[in-house]
Write a structure and sequence with these properties.
The complex is a heterodimer of chains A (162) and B (494).
Chain A: H1 2-31, H2 45-66, H3 71-74, H4 85-105, H5 107-121, H6 127-148, H7 157-161
Helix pairs in contact in A: 1-2, 4-5, 5-6
Chain B: H1 2-14, H2 17-35, H3 41-48, H4 57-82, H5 91-102, H6 106-139, H7 144-161, H8 166-181, E1 183-184, E2 191-192, H9 206-224, H10 244-266, H11 273-286, H12 299-322, H13 328-339, H14 348-351, H15 353-374, H16 378-384, H17 389-408, H18 411-429, H19 435-457, H20 464-467, H21 469-493
Antiparallel strand pairs in B: 1-2
Helix pairs in contact in B: 1-15, 2-4, 2-15, 3-4, 3-9, 3-13, 4-5, 4-6, 4-12, 4-13, 4-15, 5-6, 5-12, 6-10, 6-12, 6-15, 7-8, 7-19, 7-21, 8-19, 9-17, 9-18, 10-11, 10-12, 11-12, 13-19, 17-18
Classes of the chains: A mainly alpha (162), B mainly alpha (494).
Chain lengths: 162, 494
């Protein structure tokens, strides 16, 4: 019972989250200037309909959450696995590192570092193997996209050499 | 006979060496990503969308279609050998196929899945060939009001009818439409939902959303529930040839699965889940040995696999004839059309016959290639299953990064990618379907356009959607599909 109660809190958060998105949408629609007179249906009509839809759905989800929630029924294997925060921490660090470094060090180095963090998050402890695989993979990806497809992947330390 | 002449011209396009290479690359890549858990055709095609700037439209679509068909074949290998279905449509295959593999009949299961996929894919492609021109003739009568109603019907089926909850499906859809409206309104030039961020004026790129939901969100989800320990791969035993008995038990389910799958896929109802489930229960009902079901009955692999592939073929009918995508993959292909400046819709077959018929012809060729790739060479794919999870997801995120960063070399896109990835994680965790987000994002703005056109023609009279018979019929079907299950439940109770 205790666990069910705790899970419904999260469901409630999701329902309220949808309501927040709807509220943000309504606020943003208020910022749109009215359409010119010739357009019978202006740029606001459908946005209003969608925002209203989100609001109604948010209310329904919130009510469902207050009645006990839905995520207990749908959890895999009949039981909800606890969230592995340590793994998520490593994964999150990898993503943040990547976005912080990609402009300064270039795609290749930033992505190798991200790869290592992600591999760690999924329980790998063979760092040497991971470094080799990461280096080969990012190089292949870089050459494939930048040289073969001609998509500019930006400058960087190793990119300058290639 | 006109159709056959055009198909012949299509083969002339598809059989050029360069297009054969594109088809081969597509089906190979498609099989690989189908086999690898965590990757799907929608994600792969999204990552490859930038090639639309380099390669001509026909070749790009031959590549995309190859990936799309290939992923269906590859997915069955995974679900038979490790019981973690890559996509929801192969859940049923896992049910019986995995049991067969455990009993040492993995080879026969793979064979009936591959040959069944070939039969269904080929019959389905014949279906596209002859149905598409008919649908086009019909669709040419459509005005904006009919189109809008058709899109509403598609919205209802992809979000409210499929999946476990109409409320959560519709929430996903509405969120997708919201994302799709971000940017400059094409009719009036006003910025909408941009938070004043100039990068958002052009709208959010579908690559960012697809990669965020399918790659980043999925990786976060699996990482958070990571169990230390691995899915056990059942080693492939027995030859991949079927015995006479297997053939006897398989051919009818193949044809029945195809007969169920293609029409459901071709109706703007989409989704491969429904036909696979229907086919499974039908085979169970018709079987002389229903007690074998649940313990590895070959009919339970043959029928649903055929239904899966036939419906995948069917989905291409509304995509090519109406410009109406009913799956995430089809929605991303539609955005590829937009990136070429090609208007998908009933005029597509007239304006781009090379493209459409070349694509259809390449589907026939791709199916043959896939049969070869997936029967004699199946051992190669099985080996891919032993790639360690840390390396697999590290690699997926590297490709997610390069695909996103390549759009404009801006960290803003990466931040957006991670935000959408986070949303995707929450959606997965709380059982919101993700495909309606992509469909809503692509189809939403098109529906808005048709709505405003219809309103301009009718001078603001909303009843136009109900007074035009075709439009009213489509809306009535949508309402029936949405309300039907509720009414059925009420009657059952009462």
């Amino acid at each position: 019972m205790d666990r069910g109660g705790r899970l419904a809190v999260w469901d409630l958060a999701v329902g309220v989250g949808v309501l927040v998105i709807a509220a943000v949408a309504f606020y943003q629609i208020g910022q749109i200037p009215a359409g010119p007179a010739f357009a019978r249906i202006g740029p606001k009509a459908i946005p209003y309909a969608v925002a209203a839809g989100l609001a109604v759905l948010g209310v329904i989800l919130t009510i469902q959450a207050l009645r006990g929630g839905w995520s207990t029924e749908v959890a895999d294997d009949g039981e909800s696995l606890p969230i592995d925060w340590r793994a998520l921490f490593w994964l999150g660090s990898g993503l943040l590192l990547n976005v912080a470094l990609i402009q300064f060090l270039g795609f290749i180095i930033a992505s190798i570092l991200m790869f290592l963090c992600v591999a760690r998050a999924f329980g790998s402890d063979r760092i040497l193997r991971d470094v080799v695989v990461a280096a080969v993979l990012t190089l292949v990806a870089y050459v494939g996209f930048d040289k073969l497809l001609g998509i500019n992947i930006g400058a960087g330390i190793l990119e300058g050499i290639l | 006979m006109d159709t056959l002449a055009q198909l012949a011209q299509g083969f002339a396009v598809a059989l050029t060496p360069i297009n054969l290479v594109w088809a081969l690359v597509g089906v190979t890549l498609g099989t690989a990503i189908g086999v690898l858990p965590g990757l799907g055709p929608a994600l792969t095609i999204a990552l490859l969308l930038p090639i639309t700037f380099k390669v001509d439209a026909t070749s790009a679509f031959i590549l995309f279609a190859g990936i799309y068909y290939g992923a269906m074949y590859g997915g069955s290998t995974t679900s038979i050998l490790i019981n973690t279905p890559g996509e929801s449509a192969t859940i049923i295959t896992a049910l019986e196929g995995h049991k067969m593999a455990r009993r040492g009949r993995g080879g026969a299961a793979l064979a009936t899945a591959a040959i069944g996929s070939f039969v269904a894919g080929t019959v389905g492609t014949v279906g596209i060939t002859f149905l598409a021109p008919v649908v086009v003739d019909f669709a040419l009568k459509f005005g904006p009001a009919e189109y809008f109603s058709l899109m509403i019907l598609a919205f209802v089926t992809v979000s409210a009818v499929l999946g476990s909850s109409a409320v959560r499906g519709l929430t996903s859809l509405a969120f997708g439409v919201y994302l799709g409206m971000i940017g400059v309104d094409l009719q009036t030039g006003q910025a909408r939902f941009t938070f004043g961020v100039p990068e958002l004026l052009d709208g959010i790129n579908v690559i960012v959303v697809a990669v965020g939901l399918f790659a980043v969100g999925e990786t976060l989800y699996l990482c958070a529930r990571h169990r230390y320990g691995k899915d056990e791969i059942v080693p492939l035993q027995g030859s991949v040839w079927m015995s006479r008995e297997d053939w006897r038990r398989s051919w009818r389910p193949w044809l029945r699965g195809t007969a169920i799958g293609f029409p459901i896929g071709a109706l703007p109802a989409g989704g491969a889940e429904v036909p696979t489930f229907l086919s499974y229960y039908m085979e169970k009902k018709l079987s002389k040995r229903p007690e074998e079901f649940g313990h590895g009955a070959i009919e339970g692999v043959a029928g649903p696999e055929a239904a899966n592939n036939a419906s995948a073929a069917g989905v291409l009918v509304p995509m090519l004839t109406l410009g109406l995508p009913t799956s995430a993959t089809a929605a991303i292909m539609l955005s590829a059309f937009q990136s070429y400046g090609i208007n998908p819709g009933p005029l597509l077959m007239q304006s781009q016959p090379q493209l459409v018929w070349g694509l259809i012809a390449s589907l026939y060729i791709g199916n043959v290639m896939l049969l070869v790739l997936n029967l004699p060479l199946v051992g190669l794919w099985v080996r891919m299953l032993s790639i360690p999870t840390p390396l697999l997801y590290g690699g997926i995120l590297v490709f997610a990064t390069i695909g996103t960063y390549g759009i404009s070399n801006s960290p803003v896109d990466l931040i957006l990618l991670y935000i959408i990835g986070g949303i995707g994680f929450v959606m997965r965790k709380f059982d919101f379907p993700t495909a309606p987000v992509i469909i809503g994002m692509i189809l939403g703005p098109l529906a808005e356009q048709e709505f405003r056109r219809a309103m301009t023609i009718s001078q603001g009279d909303l009843t136009v959607f109900l007074t035009k018979p075709l439009s009213a019929t489509l809306l009535a079907i949508a309402l029936a599909l949405w309300a039907g299950p509720h009414i059925y439940r009420l009657i059952k109770k009462g």
